[in-house]
Amino acid sequence: MSTTTKRSYSQNFVLFSGLFIVFIAFIYQPLPHDFPQPWKYRLICFGAKLVAKVGYVLEKFNLIKRVQSIRLLYYLFVGCFQIRNPQHQLKIYDVAVNNVSMRIYQPLEYGPEDLMPAIIHFHGGGFMVGCRETYDVVTYTIANQTRALVLSVEYRRVPEHGFPSALNDCMTIAYEIFRQPLKYQIDINRIALAGDSAGGNLALVITQYLLRDGYKPKLTCLMYPALQFLDFTLPSYQQYLPKDILGVINEEDFLYVISQLSGRVLVTRDILRNNHTSIIHKQRLYPYLNPQKYLPKQYQQNLKPLIFDENPLMTKTLEYLITPDISPLLVSDDELKKLPPILLFTTEFDILRDEGFIFAERLKHLNKSLYHYHFKGSFHGAHILLHGPLKFDFAWTMIGKTTDAIKKNL
Ligand SMILES: *[C@@H]1O[C@H](CO)[C@@H](O)[C@H](O)[C@H]1NC(C)=O
Ligand SMILES: *[C@@H]1O[C@H](CO)[C@@H](O)[C@H](O)[C@H]1NC(C)=O
Ligand SMILES: *[C@@H]1O[C@H](CO)[C@@H](O)[C@H](O)[C@H]1NC(C)=O
Ligand SMILES: *[C@@H]1O[C@H](CO)[C@@H](O)[C@H](O)[C@H]1NC(C)=O
Fold this sequence. Notes:
With 410 residues, the chain is α/β, with parallel strands linked by helices. Helices cover 42% and strands 15% of the residues. Strands 1-2-4-3-5-6-7-8 form an eight-stranded mixed sheet, with helices on both faces.
């Protein structure tokens, strides 16, 4: 009897160790030697991949849309941590403006006559996932640390809503604030815009709109923003799109989001060779991002010459992608000169790394006020991993740099 139990224990031990090793081998992916907490990152990628796959099956059976499972996972990774504390003296409530809603974080130390500095915040998530709830830990922390009024905009996303729904919703809120600051007790001379990834894209596009209309944001904070949809042959795209960052930033999902943004049109792999834009437009806009001129030398190793070709099936339907409404990098120096001080994060492990550096270099050429932090051992989307088992220390560094820039400029 006891020998059988002993044997089954050791059998189980061998079995579980074997499974564990298989699991480790399965989730293993090579990462740079300076990558902090690599196994945590690998685990996140595994979780995301698993959920995406399960979501795919559930969708096949018409149970739940795949995007819903990814949104839920994103929330569980980031948004479900409760950090609210009455001692922080923040009043938090949701309001809607023309049926676009936003969450307001209001510091309580201001009197009814005081005007407050404000941050209009657009969350990231590839125009597809993320919401004010998922980002609550980020917006809450920024409000708590800067003591500015934070407005977290809930915009429409793909696949339910294509371009320009997100932009329109964010514009609704931004213009509401700039047109009627007093209604919200906001000091119009102390307003910042902020966002990461797709939210960074929205923040910069809207900053440019506001400036054209004579409004003056005081600061724009861009965390690894998406800045252009013209050139997908930049070295960072070539290097990191196959790496499937966070288990969700890969070729398939990239094409999916662009197709959904564009009204579910056909988007083929040709886009990765830039055939989605006409030769004329390429010639006109390429000088605005020319990597040979603006990309740091160490990133130019894998630089390939631009292909001047076009696929007419896509050039018409995707033409909006190279307008400043979604490619805010593709504007003249005169437009960039008007920008307020910019806080810019780039991360090494990121398809958007190079456009960030190109933007930084263009601003430097123009002697613009720029706080550029490059996080070498870090990856796209990292600043939201602030709590729980998936916390990364550099997420707190990123939040710290953001609140410093806000406190200094607002
Ligand atoms: C606003 O309302 C319209 C009409 O009911 C709807 O189509 C649209 O999706 C709504 N926008 C948001 C952000 O909910
Ligand atoms: C909020 O601010 C207080 C005071 O600065 C600080 O002690 C606390 O850690 C902050 N909490 C969060 C979640 O940022
Ligand atoms: C797109 O670009 C690739 C790479 O240069 C080329 O081989 C292909 O023929 C192009 N496709 C179209 C439809 O123009
Ligand atoms: C930027 O500043 C440098 C040094 O002060 C100056 O030489 C250069 O002309 C300036 N460039 C622009 C575009 O103002």
